[in-house]
Amino acid sequence: MGSTPTRRRRWTALLGTAVLTAGVGGALTGPASAVTNVDFATHCIPPAISGLPPIDGTTTAKITADNTAPKVGDTVNITYTVVTPAAGNPTDLALPADIMTPTGKVTLGGAQTGSVTVAGPKKNDPVPGRAPFPSFSMTGSFTVTEPGAITLSPGDYNIHTSYILELDTPCTVTNPPAGVSETVTATANPPANTRTISLGSASGAPGAAVAVSGSNFTAGATVTLAGRAGANQTQDTATVTANSSGAISGSLTVNDLATTGIVAYEGSAWSDTKGAGPAAYAVVDDPPVPPGSQKVTATVKAGTLSMAQAGDSVALSAVDFGSGTASTGALQAVTVKDFRGGPAGWSLTGKVTDFTGPGAKIAAGKLSWTPACATKPGSPSTCQAGSAGVVGSAGATLASTPDGTATGGEFTANAQLSLDVPAFTPPGSYAGVLTLTLT
């Protein structure tokens, strides 16, 4: 009989204090200047089996966000860090590591209301007897649905422990909501620009009027029609009014011999968010030949889009068996010649097969590249290198040029290659086929 109370006290101490343990690392950090630590009264209820009374104390916490200036539709990742929990270890018994998993809520206010569920990993340092509990962090995310200032406040949290028994200790905000720790200011995400125009003809003599029609403009808006000479606007302009369906119809008299296209836009100046075009247009200057003169003409013929490789094989560096390191090398340079004329750009993409070897293979997704592209001086277009990353069987872009009023030129594309060879891949030679496609 004398030992029973002692065993009961030890059992209660083990259960009660373990449930209140809170030590989780790995907090994400946001902009320090925008984050405020918040102190708030907290009411924690240990499991009934612990025999401990409710704990009323003060929690210090903060909220951080990975993006404090999102657009509507963006996902914002947040971290709820309990810097100082409301309770500490009330016994002399040390608590073991990695026994708890925290969860909680972050309260949204201002332009967007609601709550965000957050959770932390099962990880904590040992807690000595009578020592304060260490801080812990929980992460989650939410999608921005409204523009404006969205406030983030710490909310209720729960401590789940896996020590002897699976138990929970909920801690609630005594006077909700707690103070604001972080503010996210969201901006509206403008809808896609679907404005389009078409021309009645693609060329005309100086002073000829070209019919312009379009759709998806703002109903009732004043729309400017203008000539373009490359990237610059000419003096040839006219205005029309969009009807109740957003359609436009009018004409533009084109005098500038350098005109290469026609645009239509709302507002006082061209904007790709409120404009359409350019639609290709050329001024054909064909004055009559004076008496005693001869008209001399020359023709520029459109060429083709082509590519040529410096070679058809690449030998990557050897790796040691068991090392699991990258086999690297350089793609054979590819020369692209765009002599077509006209407004179309081009795209050079590549995809690769699995690398097969002696009784094994290395997956195509293990090959990555870092593209580069150079433009020959004098070329109307500018080459853009693709993004670094996995090539794989799905393929990736090596280089490209955009559509425009004047395109063409000569370009050189290449890439640094890296094949991630898994550790203990059987020794031998492995080969895959990298196919490049120009469109």
Counted up, domains total 3
Cα distance, first to last residue? Answer: 89 Å
Radius of gyration: 34 Å
DSSP strand (E) fraction? over 45%
Uncertain spans, ≥5 residues at pLDDT below 50? 1-33
Helix content: under 10%
Shape: flat
Q: What is the β-strand count?
A: 30
- How many individual helices? 1
Q: How many strands, which pairing sense, and closed or not: the largest β-sheet?
A: 9 strands, antiparallel
**What number is the mean pLDDT?**
85
Secondary structure category? mainly beta
Account of the protein in words:
A hairpin with a 3-residue loop joins strand 4 and strand 5. It contains one helix and 30 strands. Strands 1, 2, 3, 4, 5, 6, 7, 8 and 9 form a nine-stranded antiparallel β-sheet that branches. The protein has 439 residues and is mainly beta. The protein has three domains: 3-186, no CATH class; 196-283, Neocarzinostatin-like (Immunoglobulin-like, Sandwich); 305-422 and 430-438. Mean pLDDT is 85; it is low at 1-33.
